[in-house]
Write a structure and sequence with these properties.
The structure holds 2 protein chains of 2 kinds. By secondary structure, chain A is of the alpha+beta class. Helices cover about 70% and strands about 10% of the residues of chain A. Chain A has 9 helices and 7 strands. Chain A has a 5-stranded mixed sheet with strand order 2-4-5-7-6, covered by helices on one side. Chain A has a two-stranded antiparallel sheet with strand order 1-3. In chain A, β6 and β7 form a beta hairpin. Chain A is rod-shaped and about 155 Å long. The two termini of chain A are about 25 Å apart. By secondary structure, chain B is α/β, with parallel strands linked by helices. Helix content of chain B is about 45%, strand content about 20%. Chain B is built from 5 helices and 5 strands; from the N terminus they run βαβαβαβαβα. Chain B has a 5-stranded parallel sheet, sandwiched between helices. The chains are: A alpha+beta, B alpha/beta. At the A-B interface, α4 and α5 of A face α1 of B.
Chain lengths: ~425, ~120
């Protein structure tokens, strides 16, 4: 479960990082677009400036200003074009420089106009016209420079936004990294726990095997003694020992099953099995026990849907567990009923008894290992229901209990077909 | 002539139990308790059937099984494998390795005797 949670966490972190990355890409894209706009603007400004330069020279020629004035106008113009060039990769400082040069250029033109006014009245009109036209153009250039500056300003703002977003992305990345590390730590912890579980399973397995050998001797020698001469009383005691050796063996087998089930290793040997026959076998096996206590043991089969894919031995064990329990807790003369019926693509197995029942508060804990309902003195390993549940779940099924104290208990198993 | 059963088993109590049982059934018995004695005594006792405990120390049960199957004089002797390992995990492997029968520990004596009688064709 926690591995799954870790995966979700990692996915969430990944999503955040991707979102932040997309933001960064969008902003960077905007920046590139801004830079392109600015570059286009500067290019056109450059061309305009070149054209203005030519027009200024033409106007100066038309006004027949002297070569010194022409050079003055020319150099002021060149300075302005250079400043526009500089603006391409430059900063606000370049714009200030450009403005200064433009001002110098304008004053050069004004000086020329003054000179024209002072000395050459005849050319006044023509030059005046040309210069007026010129100034209009210059004004336009400065206006456009202003907008270029705005673009630059936007770009700066975007840069600041990008910085914030990058910071945010970094923070998210860091958070994602921590989440990732936590996930990995959790995974390691899970692996460690699984390893511990495996070790425990191995330990239980080897201990169980070690216990089987002495049990072989105990049962073997008991058999030998029972066959020989012993007083009825001795024989009775020996049978008690024998019975308890059997119980010990049951406990060992159950412990092995529980250790396997706990570690998720309850290995199933699935094959198509006629469930009716498995149930019938289990019922037949316990009929003598039931008969000895005048318990009516009924089998009701309402399914002929063909074989089900399951582990014959394990399902036999399950039915046997449920039936033995039912018999154990049913007083002499009661009844135990086994029902098998199809239900929504599943097979339903009910084992009902007219036994002592289970207090409602204890029903939920019934499937825990070693749990025993209060006030029961009946022997058993306390593992049967835990194993039954593991068997049902390994088959992808469900097990449930309904019980009323003093009336009886029904265990229901749903197995997928 | 009584048939001889070789019991390869590391647990002394079980060896004694099987000796008592098999001799009361009219069989001769021979005993070994590890991989080394198993092969020596197998050669000396010329058994008609071998009972092999797979749980010999150091996992030697399988080694003995393999030796007995590959050495010419023993290859034809039926082997009844006894193991405290559950039947699920070991029975198939034992049968594949050429065992005549597999009996899970702790066994009912009657189960083992039936396997022995079948193995000897009695």
């Amino acid at each position: 479960v926690s591995v799954q949670a870790g995966t979700w966490r990692a996915l969430a972190a990944l999503t955040l990082v991707v979102a932040a990355g997309t933001g960064v890409v969008v902003v960077l894209g905007n920046r590139v677009e801004d830079a392109r706009t600015q570059s286009r603007l500067l290019s056109s400004l450059h061309i305009d400036a070149q054209r203005l330069h030519l027009e200024a020279l033409e106007a100066a020629l038309a006004a027949r200003v002297g070569p010194a004035q022409q050079r003055g106008i020319h150099s002021a113009r060149v300075g302005m074009v250079e400043a526009i060039h500089g603006l391409r990769g430059g900063s606000r400082r370049d714009l200030r420089l450009l403005r200064a040069r433009n001002a110098r250029f304008s004053s050069a033109v004004e000086r020329e106009l003054e000179a024209i006014e002072n000395g050459r009245a005849a050319r006044l009109h023509q030059a005046g016209l040309a210069t007026a036209f010129w100034f209009t153009k210059l004004e336009r250039v400065v206006l456009r420079l202003q907008s270029a500056e705005d673009v630059r300003y936007d770009s700066v703002r975007h840069q600041r936004d990008a910085a914030w977003i990058a910071l945010l992305a970094l923070a998210l990345l860091a958070a994602g990294g921590f989440a990732w590390r936590a996930t990995i730590a959790r995974r390691r912890e899970n692996e460690r726990l699984r390893e511990l579980g495996r070790m425990k399973e191995e330990f239980v397995a080897s201990v169980s095997h070690e216990l089987r050998t002495p049990l072989t001797s105990i049962r073997g020698y008991l058999e030998l003694v029972l066959e020989g001469d012993s007083t009825p009383e001795q024989a009775d005691y020996l049978r008690v020992i024998d019975r308890n050796a059997d119980r010990l063996l049951d406990l060992i087998n159950d412990l092995l099953d529980v250790a396997q089930a706990e570690n998720g290793h309850l290995v199933l040997n699935r094959e198509p099995v006629a469930l009716e026959s498995v149930v019938a076998d289990a019922v037949a096996g316990l009929e003598p026990t039931a008969a000895a206590r005048q318990i009516e043991l009924g089998l009701h089969v309402a399914t002929e849907d063909g074989p089900v894919d399951l582990d014959r031995k394990r399902i036999g064990q399950l039915v046997d567990n449920l039936l033995s329990n039912a018999l154990k807790f049913t007083p002499d003369g009661g009844s135990v009923d086994v029902r098998l019926a199809p239900e929504n693509g599943h097979v339903r197995l009910d084992v009902s008894d007219t036994g002592i029942g289970i207090p409602e508060a204890e029903q939920a804990r019934l499937f825990e290992r070693f749990f025993r309902a209060s006030g029961q003195s009946i022997q058993g390993t306390g593992l049967g229901l835990a194993i039954s549940k593991a068997i049902v779940e390994a088959h992808g099924g469900e097990i449930a209990v309904r019980s009323t104290e003093g009336i009886g208990t029904t265990f229901s198993v749903l197995l997928p077909r | 002539v009584a048939k001889t059963i070789l019991v390869i088993e590391d647990d002394a109590d079980i060896r004694r139990l099987l000796k008592q049982r098999f001799e009361s059934e009219g069989y001769d018995t021979a005993f070994a308790w590890d991989a080394v004695t198993a092969l020596t005594i197998a050669r000396k006792s010329e058994p008609d059937l071998i009972i092999l405990d797979l749980g010999l120390p150091g996992g030697d049960g399988w080694v003995v099984m393999e030796r007995l199957q590959t050495l010419a004089p023993y290859a034809m002797i039926p082997i009844v494998v006894v193991s405290a390992q559950s039947a699920e995990t070991s029975a198939e492997r034992a049968t594949e390795a050429g065992a005549f029968a597999f009996v899970e520990k702790p066994f009912q004596m009657e189960t083992l005797l039936t396997a022995v009688r079948n193995g000897l064709g009695d």
